[in-house]
Amino acid sequence: MYPITLNIENRKCIIIGGGQIGYFKARPLLEAGAEVTVVSPEICQGFQQLKKEGKIHVSLKEVEEADYREAFLIIVATNSEEVNERVYRTASHSQLVNVISNHELGNFHLPATLNRGMLAISVSTNGASPALAKKIRNDLGEVYDESYEEYLEFLFEARKIIKKSPLTHEEKSKLLKDSIADVYKHSTKERYRFLARLLPVEAE
Ligand SMILES: C[C@@]1(CC(=O)O)c2cc3[nH]c(cc4nc(cc5[nH]c(cc(n2)[C@H]1CCC(=O)O)[C@@](C)(CC(=O)O)[C@@H]5CCC(=O)O)C(CC(=O)O)=C4CCC(=O)O)c(CCC(=O)O)c3CC(=O)O
Ligand SMILES: NC(=O)C1=CN([C@@H]2O[C@H](COP(=O)(O)OP(=O)(O)OC[C@H]3O[C@@H](n4cnc5c(N)ncnc54)[C@H](O)[C@@H]3O)[C@@H](O)[C@H]2O)C=CC1
């Protein structure tokens, strides 16, 4: 398995199977800006609500190959092992397919993810123990708390200024390393000082 983060904004993503498990997979897709379609003869309450809010397209039917031919990413989440396997076997090799009922099928797994603004920490056990992945994610949430959201904004801002500056490569590398010193994690005042030190450089 090869970890990546994927930009799925405005990409066609399809969830096959409208139960609770499919629904849990829909939220992160929508948050990432995907265009989500659900294909399922029945859909759970969560999906009904998303449909009412106009956030997803819904096809109330049993899945057929034509439903997923154009999809960039497919999540197969029916309660039929046979249907799940058939979708995986008939999808194109260039499509991303996640089969939630069998970790040996599909070409990607979903990790347990902690989001703190621009920071994302994902934990995967490659199907060995999804419950452990979830536990580790929750444990990490205590160390990497909400304060990381603002901290990452500071680091991003500093990095943009440093990259644009006329400094040498070595000087830039040193500043980028300096910017992650603990002091800036803990003190907003020190962050302002760091940025203020950079600004005259930018103006040169
Ligand atoms: C292969 C994978 C496929 C995929 O979904 O990509 C997969 C497969 C299966 N999960 C099963 C069961 C459970 N899954 C969870 C929870 C999560 N499962 C997730 C991912 C994955 N699950 C992928 C591997 C990831 C990895 O190993 O790291 C998480 C991390 C992310 C997410 O779902 O988005 C999410 C936590 C998210 C969060 O909270 O944020 C819990 C615990 C709970 O719900 O509290 C249980 C019950 C306990 C248990 O069984 O361990 C079963 C048996 C089903 C059955 O009994 O029929 C299968 C099928 C199989 O094992 O083949
Ligand atoms: N990866 C994970 O995190 C977990 C995976 N699972 C697996 O997920 C599966 C689904 O779980 P739930 O959502 O709770 O089941 P569910 O029974 O609530 O929902 C299944 C949905 O699939 C639809 N469906 C059935 N045949 C279909 C077809 N031919 N075409 C399109 N849709 C079809 C049904 O109408 C229903 O809406 C379980 O069978 C289990 O193996 C279960 C727990 C965790």
From TrEMBL:
Molecular function in Gene Ontology: ferrochelatase activity; precorrin-2 dehydrogenase activity
Record-listed E.C. numbers: 1.3.1.76
Ranges in coiled-coil conformation: none
Siroheme synthase central domain sequence ranges: 116-140
Taxonomic source organism: Peribacillus muralis
SUPFAM superfamilies in UniProt: NAD(P)-binding Rossmann-fold domains (SSF51735), Siroheme synthase middle domains-like (SSF75615)
GO biological process: siroheme biosynthetic process
Catalytic activity annotation: precorrin-2 + NAD(+) = sirohydrochlorin + NADH + 2 H(+)
InterPro entries: Met8-like, NAD(P)-bd_dom_sf, SirC_C, Sirohaem_synthase_central, Sirohaem_synthase_N
Keyword Lipid metabolism among record annotations: no
Signal peptide span: none
Pathway the protein acts in: Porphyrin-containing compound metabolism; siroheme biosynthesis; sirohydrochlorin from precorrin-2: step 1/1
Top enzyme category: oxidoreductase
Keyword annotations from UniProtKB, A to Z: NAD, Oxidoreductase, Porphyrin biosynthesis
Name under which the protein is recorded: precorrin-2 dehydrogenase
Pfam families for the chain: NAD_binding_7, SirC_C, Sirohm_synth_M
